[in-house]
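To fix ideas, we quote verbatim one protein's residues and fold tokens.
>
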Amino acid sequence: MLIIIGTLALLAVFANVQRFRHGQVETVVVRTATTPTPHAR
């Protein structure tokens, strides 16, 4: 029982750290297409 609670606590901490790091690194790059893409028929 204690192992399960400890594992869940570690998982919660890891998820919060990953969310925090993702929020810091996230950037949005927008590029305009110089050539039109061919349409497949």
Observations:
- The mean pLDDT is 77.
- The chain is about 60% helix and 0% strand.
- The longest helix spans residues 2-25.
- The radius of gyration is 21 Å.
